[in-house]
Amino acid sequence: MKTYIFSSLFLMLTLFGNAKLQAQQVDNSKNNYVVLTTKVPQLQPIILTAEALKAEEGEAFGDFQVIICGKDIGQITDPEIINTFIQKAEKAGVQIIACGFSLNKFKVDKTKVPTSMDIVENGILYNFQLQKKGYKSLSL
């Protein structure tokens, strides 16, 4: 009887243990990056970094996303400030994302966010989700 119980337990642990490992496998054929920033002017050096990595890595360069969070998020609604960064980001293959939690907290009108920018519900959570997918992360 003990042998039957131990055998069943071993079988269950083996099956469920392998299922968990398979669900967490990540494709590492490309280098993907995510940067979380609270300052819109930091987009300049971030985009320059993305351009340098893209040139250095070639085909190994994957996705590069920048998440803007924090009290200065209202600056993304000012075309004089954000439009130049958006143009440079598009040329470099960088996606700029706004944190919806910050937009709500600091009462920024979401309709004034440039249409080329995506809005995620929670920028910090989104950053962690990308890290789980294998993205290299930096917070500024």
Description:
The protein has 140 residues and is α/β, with parallel strands linked by helices. It has one domain (29-139): Hypothetical Protein Ychn, Chain: A (3-Layer(aba) Sandwich). It is built from five helices and five strands. The chain has helices at 2-23, 43-57, 79-92, 100-105, 123-132; strands at 31-37, 61-68, 94-99, 118-120, 136-139. Strand 2 (61-68), helix 3 (79-92) and strand 3 (94-99) form a beta-alpha-beta unit. Helix 2 (43-57) runs parallel beside helix 3. The protein is globular. Residues 4-25 have low confidence and may be disordered. This is Sulfur reduction protein DsrE. Keywords: Signal.
Summarize it:
The chain contains five helices and five strands. The chain has 140 residues and is α/β, with parallel strands linked by helices.
